[in-house]
Amino acid sequence: MVIPYLIGDEEAIKKHLSEITIKNASYIIVHAETDTEAAFKGIQLAKEGQVEFIMKGDLQTGTLLKEVVNHETGIRKQKVLSHLALIEVPAYPKLIGVTDGGMVLTPDIEQKKAIIKNASEVMQALGYQKAKFAVLSAAEVVQPKLPASVDAAELTKEFSHAPDMIVEGPISLDIALSPEAAGEKRYQGKIQGDTDVLVAPDIVSGNALSKSMTLLAGGKMAGIIVGAEVPIILTSRSSSAAEKRNSLLLALKVSQGANKKGVSE
Fold it and tell me: In angstroms, rounded to a whole number, what is the distance separating the alpha carbons of residues 227 and 178?
């Protein structure tokens, strides 16, 4: 059972609640005069362990993130905040992750390392023992004039001895997702069309990749921001009710999985 904290103008919240019918609903209203105050109070609830995740409502994304990364009162845990989408696509036999299509514009090599680490923490919280990360490029060879391929090779080397993930690249999308393509191209890597997470070279390709899966391939998506003390949901204005619900469920599952992992350690 989820009991939400609804943070904002109390009268406005009550008015909205009166316009919808929810049987046996449980919720807590926290009054805030401004969007900045609402964001601050939400972050403080997370710091105090009162909430397991945060979902952006009717306020600017920048207003919320400014409070998240505040050096004195924020909840940023890692150097980089990144977005991870998990998508169920009919043509693929399991969930496929895409990162980062929502936060870091053009990540450098250090930011890409952080993005992979963030996503790995999520996959572990979901129960993956050794998730496979495909670092995407146009082909499987390093091309000095193609920075994405150079970065992919360095990331493969960086995580080559990681016990909780397999990171491989440069790798093309077809080999990452199709065993047949991997066989036809005689690809010798550990990933043979069975990737768990696609690592995009920049936000444009990551965003386009995840949205094409939902718009053209019938995919169902959930997405969260990771790298903070709790998962953060920042769905776009065009997100469907189903995507928002899926993101809520993902955030809850990740939070609960992370808590269990912390207790066991």
Answer: 30
Side chain identity, residue 21: T
Residue 264 identity (one-letter amino acid): S
Contacts of 167 (CB under 8 A, 6+ apart): 116, 133, 135, 155, 156, 158, 159, 160, 199
CA 123 to chain centre: 10
* Distance of alpha carbon 180 from alpha carbon 175, whole angstroms: 8
- pTM, entire model: 0.92
* Residue found under tokens 């919240």: 13
End-to-end Cα distance, the chain: 26
Give yes or no for a contact between 6 and 20, defined as CB atoms under 8 angstroms apart.
no
Structural domain boundaries of the chain? 1-75, 76-264
pLDDT in tens, 244-256: 999 999 999 999 8
Q: Which residues contact 69 (CB under 8 A, 6 or more apart)?
A: 76, 81
Question: At 117, which helix (H) or strand (E)?
Answer: helix 109-125
DSSP string, 80-105: --EEEEEEE-TTSSS-EEEE-SSS-S
HSE on the CB side for 71, CA within 13 Å?
Answer: 0
User: How do beta strands 220-226 and 82-88 pair?
Assistant: antiparallel
Residue count of the chain, please give it: 265
* pLDDT digit string, tens, across residues 104-151: 999 999 999 999 999 999 999 999 999 999 999 999 999 999 999 999
- Helix (H) / strand (E) element for 203: namely helix 203-215
In CATH, the number for domain 76-264 is 3.40.718.10
Structure tokens at 102: 């929502």
Give the tokens for residue 56. 């952006």
